[in-house]
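Step 1: inspect the first sequence and its tokens.
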Amino acid sequence: MAKKKFYVVWEGHKKGVFNSWDTCKKQIDNFKGAQYKAFVSKVEAEDAFKGRYEDYKGKDTKKVLLSSEELKKFGKPKFPSLSVDAACAGNPGKMEYRGVDSETKRQLFIQGPFEKGTNNIGEFLALVHGLGYLKQKNLNYPLYSDSKIAMSWVKNGQCRTNLPISSENQQLFDLVKRAEKWLKENNYTTRILKWETKAWGEIPADFGRK
């Protein structure tokens, strides 16, 4: 049985918190610039309605919040640190990646968009770029990623994608080869850590396009 959701409409024919999708849909159908989001609890929805849509845009608000005990197990992110992420429009599609200061979200580097890429390739390149950035700057910061796949690829020194090489993504695969070469030729002491999304929210480098 599907879990009940509550829907906030900030901009629509009628604003408010609604307890069914059908009712919410009536408020946003044929309304230009409608702003709405689904939440897993009435309390969260009511709190969100008091705020702004922009504060929730791009965030996953449909997950059940962890208990205080569960949150304690994850602890808090380490600062200062570097966070990386990738975004891909389609699979394959236009892909880009970036790195930011985890605490301030200040963008430190960005690459792309690249044609005919995948999110996993972007996450891999972002991690290697992050490693190179930290080494070049002589910064002993942790490096966060929310991709277990990319983390395993970096650990093994190889981007194990099944994406075929084509004339459209040749530039991207050239970068992959450079990244694999860097991993082979360089030592690093950077700790690559998993960003615990369900406890801390979206990774700071997230592009906010979900």
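Step 2: inspect the second sequence and its tokens, then contrast the two.
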Amino acid sequence: MSLAVRAPLAGRVVMLDDVPDPVFSSRIVGPGLAIDPDRGHGTATATAPISGILSKVHPHAYVTVSPEGRSVLVHLGLDTVELGGQGFTVHAVEGGEIAAGEPIITWSPATIEAGGHNPIVPVIALGAAAESLTSAPAGETLTRGAVAFTWG
């Protein structure tokens, strides 16, 4: 069964090879893509990429698990764990059931970038085989909720 993984926020698709972080670019945690977020609207609300259980929530990252057991990580910016939650507002509860598109975290990509961090957002299919994903092409601009990749 194929799973549509939706863009948690609007932005331009970047292949993981071009993400300046070895954990993501070398696919240590899994394949996927990244989204270079729109910085023109002040704050952005990152949403659930799939329906399921919100198994982990940190101010800078979250994992959603589908009913079939597939896990998707959304990481808001690179090295943003260093911020200790500053600049992120969490709207969802860890362990709660969520639907694709529901708000999880509000943040400001422009503020994160101005503070010296890269605001790129890796969206990772945890533990997936790379060949099981069909991704939107690099450079394509996605709206929030558009299909970023399908996980076959």
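Step 3: confirm your contrast with the notes below.
The CA atoms of residues 50 and 70 lie 10 Å apart. DSSP finds two helices and 14 strands in the chain.
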